[in-house]
Design a protein that fits this description.
With 582 residues, this protein is mainly alpha-helical. Helices cover 54% and strands 4% of the residues. It has a single domain, classed as Rossmann fold (3-Layer(aba) Sandwich), CATH 3.40.50.300. The structure holds 3'-phosphate-adenosine-5'-phosphate sulfate. 3'-phosphate-adenosine-5'-phosphate sulfate (PPS) binds next to helix 11, helix 18 and helix 26. 3'-phosphate-adenosine-5'-phosphate sulfate binds next to helix 11, helix 18 and helix 26.
């Protein structure tokens, strides 16, 4: 059997084709899994009400500190505690971060083994507590505004400066890397996604995504675009499908690593692959295998039947967490539906942080308190401190490191740590250039031109309303929809839906005003990031300057042909897709 011999072609008459090609190993795993789920369902059915009652009645005492650290948004709760360890390092270094983490974990584990005296443990816990109390005291005595005004993000800026001056990053890379964005699904079916195939996979993955930014009007945007009868939203907004937990790393990693190793040995033994191909496979699988999604989730979120009966329909997943969650979400997306179209909505970075804070202030937790219990200044100061104290590749200027630009590896690692430490990441989420650059880079790595794959707009332009805002929305719907199918909804209908989409304006819900001082500090912090955004997008109007009187709405890219105006971008993917060389 050829290496990709078990690629699944869906057949209208037989949706169960997939099961006939599963390997026996995977079948038994699947059987075990479904047996487990049956048992779980029975248990849940029987014990469900009692368990629910217990959960509801459980007292949830939470210190302020815990509240701060957990910052309960839906995404926060879904964040895993650590990434899985690697098998093989990809050619594009995608899992270097995992490897580093593993080494660190090893050191920690060795330390733990040496440290078998329990009293020592107690002491260190007490020490930690004392340090923390001391830290808290220091925090309380600090004037957040004064401290914030000295915070800067030079290393990030230097990294971006260097990246943006390096032309190489703007060249579409060899499609070989696209092959590495290939997925192997967890049930061991080799998977070769293609935008053309009328298969279960395409019908279960989103046709386009709204990836962020959080608090930039994504909900209204979702409401607006789903007005069109052929735009089918996922089961809900923010399905978080391409964030780590949805891919259930913990569950699959071990199983998949073992099976991969076994499979590779079999293939080599049977001389079914030569060593180069073996290496290619190992590279391709090491990272991607971990991002292969669970089929159950896909089916739930994008019902295949609905989509199959409507060939012109495109599906949408709007999850603002994705933009922030690089590189994991990018990899997961590139691996699962590399043809997907991406829409980003931005907002003045300072206003976005302020909105983020107000949102968290007005959301109530189980104990009736807001998830954060601090002033805006304390909130962002805490974030600034988190960024400044990240160990290895601190975002903050450090002794001896200040002249160096951070490497991609540093940035990825620091960002990962940052997301772990402060998952809401209010300051980081407004550093648009850094995030969008990562998305562009990844698209280019798989051979896609960002100008064809991405559209970027601003909340401010849509908020202003009028004919131009309506046109922007219409243009975007037009872009994601198949040819000639965009007239079902008029521009004004999109705009009305956008206006009505706004659920709650948290900023106006009795929050104090944003002080001019703090606003100025944040505007200053973001000014160089905005400059770089303008450079990245090739248009000065993306600088988000408060003095800007130009009220022309912006859509990136400004010069676009019709090349991306089909359901899927077919150019390089058709000929050079992941299956072409196999
Ligand atoms: N139509 C319209 N006009 C003006 N402003 C609007 C609109 N739609 C959303 N918004 C503002 O966007 C903020 C919410 O953004 P999101 O929907 O992306 O939030 S979330 O990430 O989904 O939680 C939130 O901002 P703040 O009110 O400043 O907090 C909304 O008021």
């Amino acid at each position: 059997m050829s290496i990709r011999g078990r690629k699944i072609r869906n057949n209208n008459n037989n949706n169960n084709n997939e099961s006939t090609v599963k390997s026996s190993a995977s079948s038994s795993i699947m059987r075990a899994t479904s047996a487990q789920s049956r048992t779980m369902s029975t248990l849940l059915f029987t014990l469900g009400p009692a368990v629910l009652l217990l959960v509801l009645l459980r007292p949830m005492p939470m210190s302020i500190d815990q509240e701060v650290n957990t910052l309960v948004s839906q995404e926060t709760r879904l964040m895993p505690t650590k990434l899985p360890s690697p098998v093989v390092v990809n050619a594009d270094n995608t899992n270097l971060i995992h490897q580093k983490k593993t080494e660190e974990e090893k050191v920690t584990a060795e330390d733990d083994e040496d440290d078998d005296d329990e009293d020592d443990d107690d002491e260190s816990t007490e020490d930690d507590k004392a340090n923390k109390d001391e830290d808290d005291k220091v925090n309380k005595n600090q004037d957040p505004t004064a401290t914030l005004s000295t915070f800067h993000t030079d290393p990030i800026l230097r990294y971006l400066e260097k990246e943006l001056s390096n032309n190489q990053n703007f060249q579409i890379q060899d499609s070989k890397v696209y092959q590495q964005a290939n997925c192997i699904v967890p049930d061991d079916q080799e998977f070769c996604p293609s935008p053309d195939s009328d298969d279960a996979w395409r019908l279960r993955t989103p046709g386009f995504l709204i990836i962020g930014a959080k608090k930039a009007g994504t909900t209204s945007f979702w409401q607006s675009l789903t007005q069109h009868p052929d735009i089918v939203g996922a089961s809900r907004k923010e399905i978080l499908f391409f964030t780590q937990v949805q891919f259930d790393f913990a569950k699959y990693t071990k199983m998949v690593d073992e099976r991969l190793a076994q499979r590779m040995t079999e293939l080599l033994d049977d001389k079914l692959v030569d060593s180069d191909l073996f290496q290619h496979y190992a590279n391709a699988s090491a990272f991607q295998i971990r991002v292969a999604p669970s089929r159950a989730d896909l089916v739930t979120n994008f019902p295949r039947k609905t989509l199959r009966n409507r060939p012109n329909a495109v599906s949408l997943d709007a999850t603002p967490e994705y933009l922030f969650n690089f590189p994991t979400s990018i990899k997961a997306i590139m691996c699962t539906c590399p043809w997907v179209k991406i829409i980003i909505i931005l907002r003045n970075p300072t206003d976005r942080v302020w909105s983020h804070y107000n949102f968290l202030q007005h959301v109530r937790t189980n104990n009736g308190k807001p998830p954060i219990n601090m002033s805006f200044e304390e909130f962002i100061l805490k974030d600034a401190k988190t960024m400044s104290t990240l160990d290895i590749s601190s975002f903050q200027k450090t002794e001896g490191k200040d002249e160096q630009a951070l490497s991609e590896e540093d940035i990825v690692e620091a960002w990962f740590e940052y997301k772990q430490e402060f998952p809401e990441g209010p300051l980081g989420r407004s550093m648009y250039a850094l995030q969008i650059h990562q998305w562009f880079k990844e698209l280019r790595r798989i051979g896609r031109e960002p100008k064809n794959a991405v559209r970027i707009v601003r909340l401010e332009d849509l908020k202003r309303g009028g004919k131009k805002a309506a046109q922007i929305l219409n243009e975007l719907a037009d872009w994601v929809l198949p040819n000639d199918k965009h007239n079902a909804t008029s521009p004004i209908e999109y705009l009305d839906a956008f206006r009505h989409g706004m659920k709650t304006n948290y900023t106006k819900l009795g929050s104090p005003q944003l002080s001019q001082d703090t606003k100025d500090i944040l505007d200053r912090l973001y000014a160089p990031h905005n400059e770089l955004l303008a450079r990245l997008l090739g248009d000065d109007r993306w600088r988000y300057s408060r003095d800007d009187t130009d009220e022309q709405p912006l859509v990136w890219p400004a010069n676009k042909g019709r090349e991306g105006n089909t359901v899927f971008e077919r150019t390089s993917i058709d000929q050079k897709g992941p299956c072409a060389s196999r």
